[in-house]
Write a structure and sequence with these properties.
The structure is a single chain. This protein is of the alpha+beta class. The protein has twelve helices and 15 strands. It has helices spanning about 5-15, 30-45, 125-140, 165-180, 190-210, 215-225, 270-285, 295-300, 305-330, 335-355, 360-370, 400-410, and strands at about 15-20, 25-30, 55-60, 75, 75-90, 95-100, 110, 150-155, 230-235, 240-245, 250-260, 375-380, 390-395, 420, 430. It starts with 6 loop residues before the first helix and ends with a strand. The relative contact order is 0.17. It binds alpha-D-galactopyranose (GLA). Alpha-D-galactopyranose (GLA) binds near residues 214, 218 and 383. Pfam families: GalKase_gal_bdg, GHMP_kinases_C, GHMP_kinases_N.
Length: about 425
Amino acid sequence: MTTPHTPEQADSMHEGGSAKTEDLTFNDPLTFDEGALAARTLFRETFNADADGVWHAPGRVNIIGEHVDYNGGICLPIALPHRAFIAATPRSDRHVRLVSPQTRDHIDEFDLDTVDRRGTDGEVSGWAAYLVGVAWALEQAGFGPLRGFDAALHSCVPLGAGLSSSAALECAMAVAINDMEDLNLLGGDDDDAGRALLVDAARRAENDIAGANTGGLDQSASMRCTKGHALELDCRDMSVRSIPFDLAHDHLALLVIDTRAVHSHVTGEYAQRRQACEEAAGILGVDLLADIDDEQAALDQLPGEVMRARVRHVLTEIDRTRTFIDELASGSLVGERLDRCAALLDASHDSLRDDYEVTCPELDVAVDAARASGAHGARMTGGGFGGSAIALVDESAARDVARAVADAFAEHGFEAPQFLIATPEEPAGKVAE
Ligand code: GLA
């Protein structure tokens, strides 16, 4: 098993623009043209030929509904403007050659015949595992045999920041293979059904080849979100509904605070939380914690305060997410509705901190500083143990809140945080050229 996201990589791998103003670093996304050009240029320099096409897929932030996907709960992600770009050309054999800006002096080479569950004796590792893993998973799903390919990657999703940089790689690769191999899973009336199939392949790549037993939220967001909307994702059956999400209309913004405390889901804590939920479901006689009707009765049956706290988080988070979605669907985020939604974000973080215990000092300081400096609500987003927090702020206050968070980090002796503004953008696809 490998840990693809090290702090050093995170420092060097963000390839978008970053603007330092008043000592604050905002990571700006690449435009489609910039991303496609960067990937095409790397492809040409490496393989001495022009790529057939360029495909892209976004990172995500989850607005609410955390650590509930693998329990059959409801999540509410948006796709970020920050995306991975892959320039690729199919080959006539089963060989795969990969290059990224960080490895431009070295081409990673694989053979699709030797990729197997959890890689080939460690041969498939790091970021390449996410890409080759998707080809492997599509073959497992019956879409093979596939041809090999040459591919050049360029991503501006901050790495190790809890913003699904790995799902962006997987999903860009999945849509690339769909087109290169004429799988015809996208477009037309069945577009979302095809996307759901590609989500499965991307998730299997992550679970079985990269070795991170994550729950499907990230790949669903990257593949199935739509521009201007949040995605209501019911993880019991992976059904989705698009919910209009236009913060700018209400003069609000979603500030993402990348704490620079690097997390990795390949490591044990995430797996332990998941295992605790599965054990609890076993004791309660349900397949998924989301199947529980009577929260108090369930909690009373569980042995030990720690397991009760884990389950309490999951059940209360599912309720909060439902309520948040109802609020969003019923009108503008102003006045008391805004206050209620903000309180739900705050309560989500507190539950992740106290009951699920997946925050860390950097996340808690970020959230506290954001709240104290005028954010309506704030919470960690993603798997936790590092990564990013989000703050719902007045558009005009985003920079002041960022400044307050940066000051609080300096006081605590933490590395300077970085920021971006999250807007709901389009899902994975081919770059039109
Ligand atoms: C990570 C995982 C997701 C999900 C979140 C927590 O992002 O990849 O599957 O479990 O953590 O909500």
